[in-house]
From TrEMBL:
UniProt catalytic activity: L-histidinol + 2 NAD(+) + H2O = L-histidine + 2 NADH + 3 H(+)
Catalytic residues, chain numbering: 274 (proton acceptor), 275 (proton acceptor)
Entry protein name: Histidinol dehydrogenase
Organism: Thermococcus paralvinellae
Binding site for substrate: 204, 226, 229, 275, 308, 362, 367
Lineage: Archaea, Methanobacteriati, Methanobacteriota, Thermococci, Thermococcales
Function of the molecule: Catalyzes the sequential NAD-dependent oxidations of L-histidinol to L-histidinaldehyde and then to L-histidine.
Length: 375
């Protein structure tokens, strides 16, 4: 059975049998047979388990992420024309779900999604994460507590996505965020339409544009850092330096020796990588040439791991070439744009002939009558 059919069958079963199916799959895939919702005692225990220094570090990282994302909030855009009001207004999504992977528990994922959600004004957040030895990673629980998230479920995989999307064992969410394995990704794809989703996150990617001024070890370890995410991760080096190219020829790294930095930029746009580092003598000169990248990090002191963890910029980024048509997660991904109009009688009566004629062209008689009956 292929992946699509396999996931579809499990989601159908979850819709049909509800919580019993969720429990059954949780026991089969995660070896968990207990209560899904994390209790207050476990939150308290998690905080005790984390060293004070680590608590301080997490708090500081959250502060930096909050500072960066607060500047992204957009104001309602309203204008007046002919005594009529028009505009776009923004409202937060009421309830979201966040999937936090469990293989390598990623508290940074919860920070990167939870902080902008709170800034946007999302009132309800449910977190699902696969348990390990019947427990949730204490760092994940500590981050949840700092963000005021009380709903954390010991639930992973396809069954977690189904539970959030269909409201099984919890209140249904409106949009699901967070990365996962191929089963989680496919489940998110299949429930899209029932709920919203952030993106379909694939394997991690990095491309580095570098010239002869770049430190060879900086470049090499930046490339290797993303390969650390898994065997499907991808790394490209685009360079004008033959010496750097030879130094970085390692398993998993695709090296492209280019005639010019402009050629490097062209190849980077074709790749459209999740992360793009530019480590050259004058990195800002290349910035205008880059059209396709999830994130651009300039200079030798902006490595991807720093961006992933403490700079404050978001690390939820498009992969697999999706940077050609989509971008980084922002506060506005947690908000809805709503069109607004409040039209004066004078403007309506003077301009309605436009709509009446278009209704005639399209053969929409009741549309036409709706405009004609108004006096």
């Amino acid at each position: 059975m292929d992946l699509e059919s396999y996931v579809a069958e499990i989601l159908r079963d979850i819709r049909r049998r509800g919580i019993e199916a969720v429990k059954e799959y949780s026991k089969r895939f995660d070896g968990f047979d207990g209560k899904f919702l994390v209790g207050e005692e476990e939150f308290e225990e998690a905080e005790r388990l984390i060293p004070e220094k680590d608590r301080e570090i997490i708090q500081r990282i959250i502060e930096r992420v909050r500072e960066y994302h607060e500047k992204q909030l957009e104001n309602d855009r309203i204008y007046i024309k002919n005594a009529s009001l028009y505009g776009i207004i923004y409202k937060p999504i009421r309830r979201i779900g966040i999937y936090v992977p469990g293989g390598k528990p990623l508290p940074s994922t919860l920070i990167m999604v939870g902080v902008p959600a709170r800034i946007a004004g999302v009132k309800e957040i449910a977190v699902t994460t696969p348990p390990k030895n019947d427990r949730v990673n204490p760092y994940v629980l500590y981050v949840a507590r700092l963000l005021g998230i009380k709903e954390v479920y010991k639930l992973g995989g396809i069954q977690a996505i189904g539970a959030m999307a269909y409201g099984i064992g919890m209140k249904k969410v409106d949009k699901i965020f967070g990365p996962g394995n191929k089963f989680v990704n496919e489940a998110k794809r299949q429930v899209f339409g029932v709920v919203g989703i952030d993106c379909l996150a694939g394997p991690s990617e990095i491309a580095v544009i570098a010239d002869e001024t770049a430190d060879k070890e900086y470049v090499l370890y930046d490339l290797l850092s993303q390969l650390e995410h898994g065997k499907d991760s991808k790394a490209w080096l685009l360079t004008t330096s033959r010496e750097l190219a030879e130094f970085c020829r390692r398993d998993g790294i695709e090296v492209m020796l280019c005639e010019s930095l402009e050629e490097c930029a062209k190849k980077a746009n074709e790749i459209a990588p999740e992360h793009l580092e530019i480590i050259t003598e004058e990195p800002l000169k290349l910035l205008d040439l880059i059209e396709n990248a999830g994130a651009i990090y300039l200079g030798p002191y902006t490595p991807v791991p720093a961006a992933d963890y403490f700079l404050g910029v978001n690390h939820v980024l498009p992969t697999g070439g999706a940077a050609k048509f989509s971008g980084v997660l922002t506060v506005m991904d947690f908000m809805k744009r709503i069109s607004l109009a409040y039209v004066s009688r004078e403007e309506f009566l003077s301009e309605r002939y436009l709509g009446i004629r278009l209704a005639e062209i399209e053969g929409m008689e009741m549309h036409k009558r709706s405009m004609e009956v108004r006096k």
